[in-house]
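User: Hey, quick favor. My workstation is busy. Could you predict this chain's structure for me?
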Amino acid sequence: MSFFSKSKLPPKPVHKRPRSRFFKFVLWTLGVLVLVCTVLLVLWLRSLTAYVFGFEPPAMAAARYSSRAVVGDLGGVAVTIPSHFANFVEYDGDPGWGEKRKGPRPERTHQSKLISFGYYTRFPDMAGESSRELIKDRSSYPNSRTAWISVGITTGSIYPGDGFLDRIASYIGKKRKFPSTNSMSNCLDNCMV
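Assistant: No problem, here it is.
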């Protein structure tokens, strides 16, 4: 008999591993599910932020819904504008879209140069969004039949120059092929319902 004879060695034990494969499958599935849920939650939170603050950054949204009046220099005149008549306020030296402010936010005084702001006003009484009822009234209209007018004021370094409304009207007239400005105003008067 040989020293390495197979007959004298004990038989190798047979290990069954189907359960460990099942547990690995379950763990991988749970991991993928958790990852997908996390991604969906992050996307949902980002869209919720956009819904709450709109397209603007949170600092601008907080300023927009502030109850403090806006102060500044508007074309050489010191003004104090009620908050419901000054949304999306921009001062000279403010960062543009997508830029971050360098340094702390300056204290605004009547010497701070205003360069743009906007507001909504209701026609014909020219009421602003000064109360919850007026804000609810503005949101109650469909966009095509609203009594609310969006007003934008631009001045200072971003003012497009004298005659810019004529240039815009000329461009619109050429694009839509209106024969003259009189027919354009007639169309606008007759088309309004």
